[in-house]
Amino acid sequence: MTKAAAPVHEEAVRDETVREVTVHDAPRADASKAAKTPRPPREVARWVLEVEARAIAGLVPQLDESFDRAVELMLATRGRVVCTGMGKSGLVMKKVAATLSSTGTPALFLHPAEAIHGDVGMIMEGDVVLAASYSGTTEELLRLVELIRRLGVRLVVLTGNAASPLARLADVHLKLEIDHEACPMNLAPTASTTATLAMGDALAMALVEARGFTPEAFALLHPGGRLGKRLLKVRDVMHQGEAVPRVETSTSMRDTIYEMSRGKLGIAAVTDAGGRLVGCLSDGDLRRLLERDDAPLDRAAGDCMVRGPRTVDGGALASAALKLMEDHRITSLFTCDDAGRLEGIVHLHDLWRLELF
């Protein structure tokens, strides 16, 4: 970590410490030279990505028992994790709050400037505040911390300066020291905000494992996205109750055809008197029946059905049901309870609507 330079104008760099830049660290630190002889764009991009990659890798040796304590605080909280930060750090903390919320840790973002003008009322007893400021000297955050202390709320801070006022006021301080920003002038928050984001992800994923967060829980929180759809269960998409076309073995074929038409799925389940699934009849089965039988309407469903239809567990993933249909070249699967009683049916068209293809 290079030594901090003299303070600069607050509007220019509100939340970052300006550090000295060596020729080795930033070959274009001289702005006038950079303007005259700019590097090729791909060379700049390569340098930026390497600097930011090193910044993230450099966080690993900085991990200590403070990280464990931070996770324990957030895991034990009866309230929410309130994420906060100014400027670029604030934008990063919005993402951290979203990641926490979507993975089982209730969280929200609180703008520190708005907080000291009334929005601090969003913080409740039992919350934990997660604040980010690379310099650890952000005025708005320091004023917010004063209010937090009055409320008795615990504070976890992400900074690059362990001796900063914000770090000293924290219950837990997580170090985010970097060599320099991925900026030729070492001014724009780049590597520092990338490191903050990575540490936020690390906290969120540690909480995922600590909570035992499951794919099923993830799907509940992501019902509208592709990821959530991939985790939907068969019972979430199958037809149930009156929507399931079904007949008993004694039902006439005339009534069976009517039931198939009513269901609009091209198939009907055949059950015994106790409601247990014993067979099925599809449009294709009817065509084959007509080819070999001169009077199919004189028969009962039990005489014409195909025995042992394919089934799938209602708790199976919808994507697994799709795979089963593809493997057996069928368009429907039935679900039954432990006693074999018919519960529902999932059709290929239901999975099309989920865009699983």
What does the model show?
The protein has 357 residues and is α/β, with parallel strands linked by helices. It has two domains: 31-213, Rossmann fold (3-Layer(aba) Sandwich), CATH 3.40.50.10490; 234-352, CBS-domain. The chain is built from 16 helices and twelve strands. The chain has helices spanning 31-36, 41-57, 65-76, 87-102, 112-115, 139-151, 165-169, 191-211, 215-221, 226-230, 234-237, 253-263, 283-292, 301-304, 318-328, 348-352, and strands spanning 81-85, 107-109, 128-132, 154-159, 172-175, 239-240, 246-248, 267-271, 277-282, 306-307, 332-336, 342-347. Strands 2-1-3-4-5 form a five-stranded parallel β-sheet, with helices on both faces. Helix 2 crosses helix 8 (191-211), helix 3 (65-76) crosses helix 8 (191-211) and helix 4 runs parallel beside helix 8. The chain is elongated, with a radius of gyration of 31 Å. Residues 1-34 have low confidence and may be disordered.
The total beta strand count reads: 12
Oligomer: single chain
Radius of gyration: 31 Å
Summing up helix and strand content along with how strands pair, one would put the structural category as alpha/beta
CATH homologous superfamily identity of the largest domain = Glucose-6-phosphate isomerase like protein, domain 1
Which term fits the overall shape?
A: elongated
